[in-house]
Amino acid sequence: MLGLMQDWPLLCHKIIDHAAIQHGEREVVSRSIEGPVHRTNYREVRARSLKLAQALERDGYRLGDRIATLAWNTWRHLECWYGIMGIGAVYHTLNPRLFPEQIAWIMNHAEDKLIFVDLTFLPIIEAIADKVQSLEKVIVLTDDEHMPESKLPNVVAYESWLNRVDGDFRWKEFDEKTAAGMCYTSGTTGNPKGVVYSHRSNVIHALVSAQPDALGLAANETILPVVPLFHANAWGISFTAPMAGAKLVMPGGRMDGEGIYEMLDNEQVSFSAAVPTVWLMLLQYLEETGKKLPHLKRVVIGGAACPRMILQKFQDDYDVTVFHAWGMTEMSPIGTVGSVKPQFSSLTGEKRLDLQEKQGFAPFSVEMKITDDENNEQPWDGRSFGRLKVRGPAISSSYYGGDGKEQFEEDGYFDTGDVAHIDKHGYMQITDRAKDVIKSGGEWISTIDLENLAVGHPEVAEAAVIGIAHPKWDERPLLIIVKKAGCEPEGKDILKFMEGKIAKWWMPDAVSFVEEIPHTATGKIQKIELRKQFADYVLPTAV
Ligand code: AMP
Fold this sequence. Notes:
It is a single chain. The chain is built from 16 helices and 24 strands. It is an alpha/beta fold. Among the domains are: about 15-25 and about 35-195, ANL, N-terminal domain (Rossmann fold, 3-Layer(aba) Sandwich); about 365-435, Luciferase, domain 3, CATH 2.30.38.10; about 440-540, GMP Synthetase, Chain A, domain 3 (2-Layer Sandwich). The protein has an eight-stranded mixed β-sheet. The protein is globular, with a radius of gyration of 23 Å. The termini are far apart. The model has no long low-confidence stretch (mean pLDDT about 95). The structure holds adenosine monophosphate. Adenosine monophosphate binds next to strand 14, strand 18 and strand 19.
């Protein structure tokens, strides 16, 4: 017997319809690429997205066509998304922090036909356009007044292109399983792999992540996604914010401490989301200027492990509650959020921080397990490590073109490549990437734990740990440090600071100072690069 409910496909453009009907006046504020702050609202965003869909159709774009964007978070970028999805085409976000050759490779792999590009990134496209065979047209996200000269043959300013149609258009109807968007993972090994979101998965992810124990978004919030649209759908906020009717504040191209602070303060932002490095810059700016955060109530921190020091500073010095979250591009991206379950609500001080340092528990629709190298499930005892595997309706079932098959298992689980433990309450803690974990004398040492501890030293700006070959123990940890400006800590001071806070045999064998630690395009420490830099390094304990 079938249920007798209406067949209402979960299509992404229904989200912007809802926002326009129920929260039409709610503002979308952006720092424009041209400079000034720009203000619009959900009704306008929807109207212009419809025009965009109409213009795309007039130009011959159809269901399934891949349409790239290379842009910061602004209202125009959001319009592109909803307009592209509204004709059943596929938005494909490109990460401008990648090398131009990588961008060209990804565009060729996805066979992008058209690109919407920010003024700032036009030179990248000019440099690679002739290498992307499928590319037919370039639309620069600006108006005629700011349109630069370009040697590209088929290039046009967004505003004048949009104004050639009248907006009298209806969204297309299609199956909810139709592809809505694409995003390539940064791929620390091998070529990048394409994640393909469907309309259904994006809508389900938005419903799930708006729950109180996930992002907890509501109409009375003002949210600033620092996390870019090109980093896993801005953690879904591009869907969750309009679905909830939250005011949306977009930072454009300025991600420095002062730039973010200005938007937080001027727009009275109550909630924000970013990777730890962004928050480190903001906290440093606040320390230098003595400024406070009177409006900000909550931040979500993810993309990389959140050092305890960030949790502590936000909560103790600025009265901002931190939610530590874990996820992946392949998971749309939210996997777990560190909300506090009722049995822990009375925890305070260090004990509460211990809990918050974990990446949290999975919301409905994310199923997790941890397994050893023989695929035996490990207990949820908070100690047993294992490879973290996940499944659910907003998690990849394969990569575009069938790449990376080995990560998708027969029982429907996706192997995240992360190593974690899970406690009996369901709280998961990432201890490493499987390929970064240090194997010392047959036991595993978590590089993340060591890094988080070292960065708590007052004279340390950033820390990374890698395994170095050791004749007796196979591998031992080397701690790599970037000093804070004007500070001269010695290696032994930092190790002393770490003493007593970790098992003795986890203690790094040596400390090395560097000017800079390399990062990937999504802000993670580039361990592969560090391992290359230290390929000839010999530990003092190894001689
Ligand atoms: P991406 O797809 O670029 O978002 O990268 C996903 C990967 O980032 C995960 O597989 C983890 O290795 C890492 N990651 C994300 N969030 C966290 C977190 N809160 N703590 C530790 N690692 C994280």
